[in-house]
């Protein structure tokens, strides 16, 4: 597949953009005229520079307000086109995009436009160039690819073809299946963009909110199925106008773009196996069956305090690593490793961030397949020297440079605990924690799309709608991702200001990482009672909260009193109930949550977040912990 991306899609100056695009593995670029005009170099030099970086120029764009003009304006439009043809020849590209006119003096009429294109086709042909016509969703006379196609069909010139752009078709809810009727060789170019469903003016939506396929809500894979069914085999090119991306890291956004293209084309192939998709075979999205372990990097007193917290939470010391300074803590199915090594990835993570989650192990059906898919999607694999007697467990880089290991039953990798740890379990019956419910990762708001794409393209995970978490000092956006029936859940929390609890954590821990781990119990009250005996210090919740709870829900007075007595928070949705109990914050603002879902409560207790956060901030302030 010829992967391509428009230079408008990413930030930086022209050379920075090219470097990032080349490094991400793209075949070519669309040159957006603005980017080129701002660059101080001749068209010939620009063309050479692009090819020296191993990239092709797949398209020059946009040429605006061409068709349907009267008299002198029409002549002028053709003159302008000739000037741009000169430029294209110097750059070394043969295809230009003409977008449907918004000129106030342009006239409608399919034949008038077709005549203009037939003449333009003649002029282009003399120079060996081609012209593609794209319907802008807000075009004055043409705003639908079907009308643009009719114009191209009537222009009936070999150098005139159609350009389809998923945004323009899907934003107007035009059925992409209508593209199947178009001959593939008359589609000269394909642009892809997704977008979140927001009800707003089409032009504004397009110029500010587009995002990578898979990051938004539009059926981009269905659009691409229809395109592929025509036999089109030219470049598939990302054209993403997005305010965040314009200010983001060019390398990250380019990598996300590459990942999104591979992901969407793999979806096309899976949804419609009869289609010929030019993409190396790769395993399907991976079914994550659960969290195998969570590893903290820590050291000295910090590590002692963490282990004391784990013990208070009902974890028992299960074993020590055969050769490294690792302890394994277990309760129910939950395994937590505390890594005190002074060399290797955990040590680097601790040196930068202090106590932090540096690694996460996921249970998958096939670890080798997981790595193969991750690599196909452009993820970075990770390996470090393996000590005697240790298993080689495959890993990739995850959030904030942390690791993600994959453990399966078939490869013997699930025996790692018996093989690598001297088992010395204590007789401890724990506090009733059964498994990991979810892992909450904190990041800047700008990083959220990258991480949701990372998880949803690699794993069979679905996104829930974004929810607002109200911190007394600002807003935190939260996006939940879920695999299977909740076998593996992640929440991505995007902070916009350092004054929020999440933002403060982000600043103190030098970047995105796990801020809290939520553990399940089948009986929150029994667990609370056991925790209390173990000296666990819950996060104290105000009496006002419980008064409000009594007003909002029909709760038995006895149950309300028990919740209040144990600092348990409560919420209901259409599917069930949730009970939540929080630890006090530790490290740079990390914490544990213990929760019980009843029936099939689907959320994460977002309505309780403001009270939980206020309580955490009350505790953190006097101790000189992060200044929230
Ligand atoms: O927003 C625009 O003007 C614009 C220009 C060129 C395109 O290909 C496009 O999809 C939109
Ligand atoms: Mg476009």
From TrEMBL:
Q: Where does Mg(2+) bind?
A: 438, 516, 593
Q: Does the keyword Iron apply?
A: no
Name the cofactor(s): a divalent metal cation
Which InterPro entries does this entry report, sorted A to Z? Answer: 4OHPhenylPyrv_dOase_N (IPR041736), DSD (IPR043700), Glyas_Bleomycin-R_OHBP_Dase (IPR029068), Glyas_Fos-R_dOase_dom (IPR004360), IolE/XylAMocC-like (IPR050312), VOC_core (IPR037523), Xyl_isomerase-like_sf (IPR036237), Xyl_isomerase-like_TIM-brl (IPR013022)
Q: Keyword set for this entry?
A: Dioxygenase, Lyase, Metal-binding, Oxidoreductase, Pyruvate
Q: Which GO terms describe its biological process?
A: 3,4-dihydroxybenzoate biosynthetic process
One GO MF term on file is: metal ion binding
Pfam families with a match to the protein in the record: AP_endonuc_2, Glyoxalase, Glyoxalase_5
Q: Which domain of life is it from?
A: Bacteria
Q: What is its EC number?
A: 4.2.1.118
Q: Under which name does UniProt file this protein?
A: 3-dehydroshikimate dehydratase
Q: Which protein family is named in the record?
A: Belongs to the bacterial two-domain DSD family.
Residues in VOC domain copies = 290-409, 435-584
Where a divalent metal cation binds, per the record, is at: 134, 165, 191, 239
The record's annotation in SUPFAM superfamilies points to:
Glyoxalase/Bleomycin resistance protein/Dihydroxybiphenyl dioxygenase (SSF54593), Xylose isomerase-like (SSF51658)
* Involved pathway(s): Aromatic compound metabolism; 3,4-dihydroxybenzoate biosynthesis
Role according to the record: Catalyzes the conversion of 3-dehydroshikimate to protocatechuate (3,4-dihydroxybenzoate), a common intermediate of quinate and shikimate degradation pathways.
Reactions catalysed, semicolon-separated, are: 3-dehydroshikimate = 3,4-dihydroxybenzoate + H2O
* Principal EC category: lyase
């Amino acid at each position: 597949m010829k992967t391509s991306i428009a230079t408008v899609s990413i930030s930086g100056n022209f050379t920075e953009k090219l470097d990032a695009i080349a490094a991400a593995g793209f075949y070519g670029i669309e040159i957006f005229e603005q980017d080129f005009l701002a660059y101080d170099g001749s068209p010939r030099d620009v063309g050479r520079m692009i090819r020296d970086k191993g990239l092709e120029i797949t398209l020059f764009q946009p040429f605006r307000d061409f068709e349907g003009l009267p008299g002198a304006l029409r002549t002028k439009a053709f003159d302008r086109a000739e000037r741009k043809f000169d430029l294209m020849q110097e750059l070394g590209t043969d295809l230009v995009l003409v977008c449907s006119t918004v000129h106030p003096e342009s006239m409608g009429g399919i034949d008038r436009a077709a005549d203009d294109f037939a003449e333009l086709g003649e002029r282009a042909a003399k120079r060996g160039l081609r012209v593609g016509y794209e319907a802008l969703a807000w075009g004055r006379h043409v705003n639908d690819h079907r009308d643009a196609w009719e114009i191209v069909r009537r222009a009936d010139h070999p150098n005139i073809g159609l350009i389809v752009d998923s945004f323009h078709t899907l934003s107007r809810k035009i059925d992409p299946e209508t593209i199947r009727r178009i001959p593939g060789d008359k589609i000269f170019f394909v642009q892809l963009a997704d977008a979140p469903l927001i009800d707003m003016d089409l032009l504004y939506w397009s110029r500010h909110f587009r995002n990578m396929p898979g990051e938004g809500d539009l059926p981009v894979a269905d659009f691409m199925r229809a395109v592929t069914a025509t036999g089109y085999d030219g470049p598939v090119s990302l054209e993403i106008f997005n305010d965040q991306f314009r200010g983001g890291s060019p390398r990250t956004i380019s990598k996300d773009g590459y990942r999104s293209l591979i992901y969407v084309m793999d979806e096309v192939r899976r949804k419609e196996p009869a289609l010929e998709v030019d993409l190396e075979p790769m395993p399907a999205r991976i079914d994550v069956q659960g969290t195998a372990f969570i590893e903290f990097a820590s050291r000295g007193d910090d590590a002692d305090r963490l282990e004391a917290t784990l013990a208070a939470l009902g974890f028992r010391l299960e074993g020590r690593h055969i050769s490294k300074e690792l302890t394994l803590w277990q309760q129910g199915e939950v395994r937590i490793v505390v890594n005190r090594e002074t060399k290797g990835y955990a040590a680097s993570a601790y040196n930068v961030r202090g106590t932090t989650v540096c690694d996460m192990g996921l249970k998958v059906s096939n670890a080798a397949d997981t790595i193969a898919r991750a690599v196909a999607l452009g993820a970075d694999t990770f390996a470090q020297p393996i000590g005697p007697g240790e298993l080689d467990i495959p890993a990739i880089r995850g959030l904030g440079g942390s690791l993600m290991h994959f453990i399966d039953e078939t490869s013997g990798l699930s025996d790692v605990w018996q093989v690598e740890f001297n088992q010395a379990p204590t007789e401890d019956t724990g506090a009733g924690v059964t498994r990991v419910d979810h892992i909450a990762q904190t990041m800047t708001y700008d990083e959220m799309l990258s991480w949701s794409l990372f998880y949803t393209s690699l794993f069979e995970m679905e996104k829930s709608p974004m929810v607002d978490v109200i911190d007394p000092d600002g807003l935190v956006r939260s996006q939940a991702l879920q695999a299977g029936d909740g076998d593996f859940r992640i929440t991505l929390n995007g902070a916009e200001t350092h004054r929020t609890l999440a933002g403060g954590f982000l600043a103190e821990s030098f970047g995105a990482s796990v801020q809290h781990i939520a553990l399940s119990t089948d009986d929150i009250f029994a667990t609370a009672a056991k925790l209390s005996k173990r000296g666990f210090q819950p996060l104290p919740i105000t009496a006002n909260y419980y008064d409000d709870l009594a007003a909002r829900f029909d709760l038995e007075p006895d149950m309300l009193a028990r919740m209040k007595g144990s600092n348990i928070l409560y919420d209901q949705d259409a599917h069930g109930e949730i009970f939540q109990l929080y630890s006090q914050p530790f490290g740079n603002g990390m914490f544990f949550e213990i929760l019980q879902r009843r029936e099939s409560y689907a959320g994460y207790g977002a309505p309780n977040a403001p009270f939980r956060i206020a309580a955490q901030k009350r505790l953190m302030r006097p101790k000189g912990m992060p200044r929230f």
